[in-house]
Amino acid sequence: YNARVRGEFPEGGADNLISLGWLKGILTPKTARPKGERIMGVDVARFGDDRTVIVIRDDRTVIAVFQYAKKSTMETVGLVQKHASEFNIRAEDIMIDDTGLGGGVTDRLHELGHEVLPVNFGERALDRERFLNCRAELYWALRSAFKPDSENKLFVPKEFASLAKECTWPRYKIRSDRLIQLESKDEIKKRKKRSPDEADALALTFYRQTNEFSMEAA
Q1: Which entry of 66, 141, 162, 167 is 20 to 30 Å from 194 by CA?
Q2: Long-range Cβ contact pairs of 182-190 (< 8 A, separation 24 or more)
Q3: Which helix (H) or strand (E) segment is 182 a member of?
Q4: Do 27 and 177 contact (CB within 8 A), yes or no?
Q5: Contacts of 76 (CB under 8 A, 6+ apart)
Q6: pLDDT at residue 48, as a whole number
Q7: Does the predicted TM-score (pTM) go above 0.85?
Q8: What's the Cα-to-Cα distance from 123 to each of 66, 97, 107, 134, rounded to whole Å?
Q9: Which of 205, 200, 206 shows the shortest CA–CA distance to 67?
Q10: What is the pLDDT of residues 40-64, one digit of tens each?
C-alpha cells in the first residue's frame, strides 16, 4: 500500500541491513556542495555478467558512478588511473576490492607507483568483538551514513538511485557468538538475480575511515 498507493518507500524486512524507507531521506535532485577529500571505491568484476564498478564520493555526497563490463585487469588499471586524474583523487584515497581479479589490479597499480589501498572483504574485522569480517564492518559503516538520525549523512543524487537501492539488498543476522554477519554476495545474487556491485564499491570507500576510527580508539 505504501509503495503502490501512497508512493512511499516501504520499510523493508527486519533483517535488512539498510531499510528501503531510509532512501527518501538520502536521495537528492543533484550533487551537494563538496565536503572533504574525494574517495574512490573499485569493485572489480570476477566473472560473467558481474560489473566492474567505480564509485566516487566525498564526505557529503556520491559524486560519480561508473560501470564497465568484461574489462581485462589492465583495462581496469587504466580506468582507475583515468578517473583518479579526472576527479583529482590521491592514490591513498582509492580502495580496491583485492580478492580474485582485484588483486591483479592492485598489484599493477602498486608497480606503477600508486599506493592504493587493497581491501579483502573476507579478512578479519577491526572490531572483532562485533563483526564477523571486514565486509560486515564496512557495510555497517555505510548503514550508519544512511540512517535518518545520522550526524554525517551521505546523500545520493537521484541519477544514482540504482546504487542506493542496491545498498538495501543485503540482509544480516547476529550469530550465537554475537557477531554481526552479512549475507554473502553470492546469496544476494541468487535472490536478486544480479550482483550488488555498486553497493560493494560504495562500501569499499569506508575502509580508510573505519581504519582511522580504529586507530583513534586505540
Answers
A1: 141
A2: 182/17, 182/132, 182/133, 182/135, 182/136, 182/139
A3: strand 180-182
A4: no
A5: 42, 44, 52, 68, 101, 105
A6: 65
A7: yes
A8: 26, 11, 18, 6
A9: 200
A10: 999 998 766 789 999 999 999 999 9
